[in-house]
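Tutorial, part two.
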Amino acid sequence: MDTNSNYTERSYRISKLILLLLTFAALSIIINISSEISRYLFGLPVILSGLLGIYGSIFIFKGLDEPTNEKKIIAITVNFAMVLLIVTILISNTIYRL
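Running the prediction step on this input gives:
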């Protein structure tokens, strides 16, 4: 396997992990054991997914010269969406605190 293909494959695996974490976060809200526990069970996977999105986006940038396939499209969409979500959360919290 070529080095660039390895970048897309890593980013795709990270995007699958992100989707799994977001599913866990959604289930924790649906179950809603208590408000304090649900806050942590929702917030922790979302923050972790954001950090993984940044990490996966780095791999996408490294593998940009690779031919486009469905794994690359999925990885780009999920990773960049998570980066956008984290940036939006940080900006909204900053504006709210002002």
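Residues 3-97 form one domain. In part three we will examine how such features are distributed along the chain.
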